[in-house]
Amino acid sequence: MTVVDTPPTTLREATIPPDGMYEGARVLRRLPEGWEERPYERFEIVPLGRVIGAEIRGLDLSRPLEPALREELNRALLEWKVLFFRAQHLTSEQQRGFARNWGELETNPLLAAGSSEDVVRFDKASGATPTFENIWHTDVTFRTRPALGAVLQLREVPPVGGDTMWADMAAAYDNLPADVKERVDGATAVHDVIPGFVRFYGPERLAPFQEMFPPVEHPVVRTHPETGRRMLFVNTSFTTRITGMEREESDRLLSFLCRQAHVPEYQVRFHWQPGDIAFWDNRATQHYAVNDYAPHRRVAERVAIEGDRPF
């Protein structure tokens, strides 16, 4: 008589670290619920990612935008969150003019200026300190009204490396566990200029800006003012704590929320060539400038567009 061993019906005890990032299906919804998807009539669009990032072809951004073209580009921005335009080679004035189609430009006194105070210049030569890179963040959330968006142009590109990545924070919110959504819906968090810049500047440089930019509170989950989409709105550079929580609980939850930007399914990565333009919705994304090009030089110029108060 043959005896067949019966496999055990119980598993050994195993402990999974809390707040982990686990495998499994993800919701990858590019458009808001009920959004009508229509073809683009004035340019060609080439998707670069599943939920975020598209290249726009057939436009010369040095020319003024007609209202209908501006509206169609704005729809593309809302639908794809970051738009790429190859080989535009705009002057600083032309770059500013394009950005002004979406509002007034803002200045940032903490960053090096280019041709004017509302043009920021990132000139990373050999041996330069890798500032404002290698971290996922949303620009200037320490402001009461963080930027609507930004237009970045690469003037000089290293022979290898120097890519930029963007993450869709609506997709990040969609995929939060239900219990986490319950904790963060309606919550607010404190954003502060100091943590984002103290890594590079000493107290003498930063002290004058403490009164100019006092800490502000924003929703942990903001609503997009044009699409109505819900999006995570915390980031490693400027968000310091969740209001009303003990420090340990706040730190743990913020760490989990900020890690959502690291999920590849929510990302697009762009490899630059000289004269390329990226235009992103700062309300809906985080981005990460990859510093992997030393000892080569990388030069970029950026203009930012004034935004509204998150709600």
From TrEMBL:
Molecular function as annotated in GO: dioxygenase activity
Keywords (A to Z) from UniProt: Dioxygenase, Iron, Metal-binding, Oxidoreductase
The UniProt record lists the keyword DNA-binding: no
InterPro entries: AtsK-like (IPR051323), TauD-like_sf (IPR042098), TauD/TfdA-like (IPR003819)
Xref: Pfam families: TauD
Record domain TauD/TfdA-like: where: 45-302
Gene3D superfamilies xrefs: Clavaminate synthase-like
Similarity remark: Belongs to the TfdA dioxygenase family.
Protein name: TauD/TfdA family dioxygenase
Organism: Streptomyces asiaticus subsp. ignotus
Lineage: Bacteria, Bacillati, Actinomycetota, Actinomycetes, Kitasatosporales
